[in-house]
Specification:
Blueprint: E1 7-17, E2 24-31, E3 36-38, E4 41-43, H1 50-62, E5 64-79, E6 82-96, E7 106-110, H2 112-118, H3 122-134
Parallel strand pairs: 1-6
Antiparallel strand pairs: 1-2, 1-4, 2-3, 2-7, 5-6
């Protein structure tokens, strides 16, 4: 299998200061197709740059615009026998609002410990740790 067979995607670990306490909150998305909780992400469109795709996917899935920050580790895994690579960035939510859709039916803004518990995949917990480190909170 060549590198050209790799499905390319991008996403963000989306965060904001809590509107109430000012503490950090992480946005997770629930995808009914997979019944999982994860960080917002999606496939790159033809000739799309990964960061542009990450920002687009965040807005499409969460309804929030964001400001990208530190580059986080990429993840690699297999989906239906095909390699997938997802590039990630830390991103601070600025404005917007969630509207449920067929791809994402719910979002949750959670404290880091609660987000860690809710995340379905261990690789997404690693990304949460990378965000906390990038924000100098770990």
């Amino acid at each position: 299998m060549t590198d050209d067979d790799t499905v390319r995607a991008a996403g963000c670990v989306l965060w904001r200061p809590s509107p109430d306490a000012g503490e950090l909150e992480i946005c997770l998305v629930h995808r009914p197709k997979y019944d999982d909780w994860s960080h917002p992400k999606g496939k790159l469109k033809h000739a799309e740059e990964p960061l542009a795709a990450a920002l687009r996917e965040v807005e499409e899935e969460t309804g929030f615009r964001c400001v990208p920050g530190a580059r986080l580790p990429s993840t690699r895994y297999s989906v239906d026998g095909h390699p997938k690579q997802v590039s990630y960035w830390a991103a601070e939510a600025t404005d917007g609002g969630f509207t449920p859709n067929s791809e994402v039916d719910r979002i949750a803004w959670l404290a880091p410990d609660a987000a860690r518990t809710r995340l379905t995949q261990p690789r997404d917990r690693d990304l949460l740790d990378a965000l906390l480190s990038a924000l100098h909170l770990a």
